Amino acid sequence: MRPQLTQKATQVLVQALVISRLDYCNSLLAGLPACAIRPLQLTQNAVARLVFNLPKFSHTTPLLRSLHWLPVT
Protein backbone atom coordinates (compact mmCIF):
# COMPACT_ATOMS: atom_id res chain seq x y z
CA MET A 1 0.00 0.00 0.00
CA ARG A 2 2.96 2.35 0.60
CA PRO A 3 3.67 2.98 -3.12
CA GLN A 4 0.18 4.44 -3.58
CA LEU A 5 0.51 6.91 -0.68
CA THR A 6 2.25 10.25 -0.79
CA GLN A 7 4.90 11.06 1.79
CA LYS A 8 2.55 13.46 3.58
CA ALA A 9 -0.28 10.91 3.69
CA THR A 10 2.09 8.27 5.08
CA GLN A 11 3.32 10.72 7.70
CA VAL A 12 -0.22 11.51 8.83
CA LEU A 13 -1.12 7.82 9.06
CA VAL A 14 2.02 6.96 11.02
CA GLN A 15 1.48 9.86 13.41
CA ALA A 16 -2.12 8.84 13.97
CA LEU A 17 -1.50 5.13 14.41
CA VAL A 18 1.99 4.80 15.92
CA ILE A 19 3.44 8.04 17.26
CA SER A 20 0.23 8.92 19.10
CA ARG A 21 0.51 5.62 21.03
CA LEU A 22 4.11 6.36 21.98
CA ASP A 23 3.13 9.85 23.16
CA TYR A 24 0.13 8.55 25.09
CA CYS A 25 2.29 6.18 27.15
CA ASN A 26 5.10 8.67 27.58
CA SER A 27 4.64 9.18 31.33
CA LEU A 28 4.53 5.42 31.89
CA LEU A 29 7.82 4.98 30.04
CA ALA A 30 9.78 7.34 32.30
CA GLY A 31 12.37 5.48 34.32
CA LEU A 32 12.22 2.22 32.41
CA PRO A 33 15.51 0.45 31.70
CA ALA A 34 17.12 0.81 28.28
CA CYS A 35 16.23 -2.78 27.37
CA ALA A 36 12.53 -1.85 27.58
CA ILE A 37 12.91 1.47 25.73
CA ARG A 38 15.03 0.15 22.85
CA PRO A 39 12.20 -1.73 21.04
CA LEU A 40 10.10 1.44 21.10
CA GLN A 41 12.96 3.48 19.64
CA LEU A 42 13.48 0.84 16.95
CA THR A 43 9.79 1.07 16.10
CA GLN A 44 10.00 4.85 15.79
CA ASN A 45 13.07 4.53 13.58
CA ALA A 46 11.31 1.98 11.37
CA VAL A 47 8.25 4.18 10.82
CA ALA A 48 10.51 7.17 10.05
CA ARG A 49 12.11 5.09 7.30
CA LEU A 50 8.64 4.07 6.13
CA VAL A 51 7.55 7.71 5.81
CA PHE A 52 10.57 8.55 3.64
CA ASN A 53 10.51 5.16 1.86
CA LEU A 54 14.15 4.45 2.69
CA PRO A 55 15.98 1.13 3.10
CA LYS A 56 16.16 -0.69 6.42
CA PHE A 57 19.69 0.33 7.39
CA SER A 58 19.55 4.04 6.54
CA HIS A 59 20.45 6.55 9.25
CA THR A 60 17.39 7.89 11.11
CA THR A 61 18.61 10.92 13.09
CA PRO A 62 18.10 13.38 10.20
CA LEU A 63 14.73 11.79 9.45
CA LEU A 64 13.51 12.23 13.02
CA ARG A 65 14.67 15.85 13.00
CA SER A 66 12.91 16.65 9.74
CA LEU A 67 9.70 15.04 11.05
CA HIS A 68 10.08 16.98 14.35
CA TRP A 69 9.84 13.74 16.34
CA LEU A 70 11.65 13.51 19.66
CA PRO A 71 13.56 10.31 20.45
CA VAL A 72 11.76 7.89 22.72
CA THR A 73 14.57 8.07 25.26
Largest sheet: none
What is the CA–CA distance across the termini?
30 Å
**Total number of domains:** 1
Share of helical residues: 55-70%
Describe the structure.
This protein has one domain. Helix 3 packs across helix 4. The chain starts with 6 loop residues before the first helix and ends in a 6-residue tail after the last helix. With 73 residues, the protein is an all-alpha fold. It is built from four helices and no strands.
What does the secondary structure layout of this molecule look like, with pairings?
Layout: H1 7-24, H2 26-29, H3 34-52, H4 61-67
Task: Name some characteristics of this structure.
73 residues; mainly alpha; 0% strand; globular
In short:
This protein is an all-alpha fold. It has helices at residues 7-24, 26-29, 34-52, 61-67. Helix 1 (7-24) packs antiparallel against helix 3 (34-52) and helix 3 crosses helix 4 (61-67).
